[in-house]
Predict the structure.
Amino acid sequence: MTFKLAASPHSHQRRTTQQVMRWVYMALIPGLLALIYFFGWGVIWQLGLAIITAWVAEAACMSLRGRPIGFAWRDHTALVTAILLAISIPGLAPWWLIVIGTAFAVIVVKHVYGGVGQNIFNPAMAGYVLLLISFPVQMTSWPLPQQISQFELSFLDSASVIFTGFTPAGYNLEQLRMGADGLTMATPLDSLRTALNHQLTVGEALQQPIFGELAGLGWQWVNLAFLLGGLVLLKQRIISWHIPGGMLLGLMIPATLAWLFAPDQTVSPLMHLLSGATMLGAFFIATDPVTAATSNRGRFYFGALIGFIVFAIRTWGGYPDAVAFAVLLANMTVPVIDKYTQPVAYGHGGRS
Amino acid sequence: MSYKEISWNGLWENNPALVQLLGLCPLLAVTATVTNALGLGLATLLVLVGSNITVSLVREWVPKEIRIPVFVMVIATFVTVIQLLMNAYVYGLYQSLGIFIPLIVTNCAIIGRAEAFASKNPWRRAAFDGLMMGVGFTLVLIVLGGIREVIGNGTLFDGADLLLGDWAAALRIEIFSVDYPLLLAILPPGAFIAMGFIIAGKNWIDHYREQREAKPVKEVTRARVTSQ
């Protein structure tokens, strides 16, 4: 019997990056199905565009850097970046939006910093923020949930809207977003925010048809589907509970306090949890192992910080949702969090 | 230091914006268009030449202990002169640059040159150093402004008539026109990203030149020491 000498780490999961990434995008499938069911086929076209752009951009960067292209394609990280960005943007957004966003995410945010494992910022969210501050109109034109929309778009109709701006019948995106009363409607968080700014109470604001029983028609189920996928990742030990748990607590605690004090002027905690990008952010975006903190305690603080920033921006900030900004801001604090949460090595003091 | 060295230093080797990374606040804030960049660059250039000459002339009489306040006063005087001149002759540009004209006083590139060069050299050299540093700074401003204007607006020399008079309106070049410009390039984050790429480009050129200079590898010829 021979004893092999091997360098540390001595205990590890036998999973390659590709396998981890495959679990991540498999776990996104329930959320993706919910998105298609409520918001139409557009997201499939966005996914296709994003994946093609990511592959081309990755190949271009790798060949410029003189590295093997196939190696980068096989680790599937660009694929996950592309998928996360594609499901974060409105399904019927024009085609160039996702192309610019994905190319920026892969080229500038990932490869300029040195490629996979070296980036400081979450590529998908940096791409999202680029798009949000450059093209605010397109980035906030979410289609209506199909259940209250007057139009039913087929698979090819949505392609026509994405590539030309019009359906074959000649309707543009603005007309498609009109409800039965002829008014365009924003996302639940956006509408609620506008209503609160117009001195309405939450109870009055919730009369609009866009709010379903819990937290917005369609959105609640999309969020629950992402929660389901996230729980699968937890079960598979792809992610630990610290980041999602921290983020949901960091969002829940201030939201509950504010709601208890002024239930008529603040968004309810349930709505915070099940609307916007909360679940997608908590389980799939904030948990990016490269840009998150390292130790478990650090990860919990990192998640809690994201949750609190999301609450702060949703409540007092200029944007209706804030997961992308919160993740980028928390990414910047990671070196500080890592410095103060470094675990004490065995035998080196600490609390006795 | 010869005049040739001074110019090489100012324009490339020790460029205030690319290497010393001084004066980044106006550099990043006003370079949304080439016109603004050129206007601020020229203003900085004039202040730099004026302050370098004055500091060099009075350097024998200024006690070491209070030199910094004296330099700041000299620079502030020139900035006030430039500001009043711009207010009088290029009012449109004066308005679009706004607070960044008085803020030239705080531009570290200027006090840096006063301290590092003008206070130790005769006035002719100091003036030439100020000119070259100013030109180097202005060139970087123009490149950065050009990149941001093309990406963010699809034009070049938009509003040049504000700086150069009415004839310059013909300079405006429309490269492409889009319904929705990439706002990020015009906003401050775009300035940081573009600046990063420019510095990377400079480093790449330096690296390339070094490699080319180091090319002639010594041919090792072995002398045969054993007989066959």
About this structure: Chain B has one domain: 3-213. Chain B touches chain A through nine residues (CB under 8 Å).
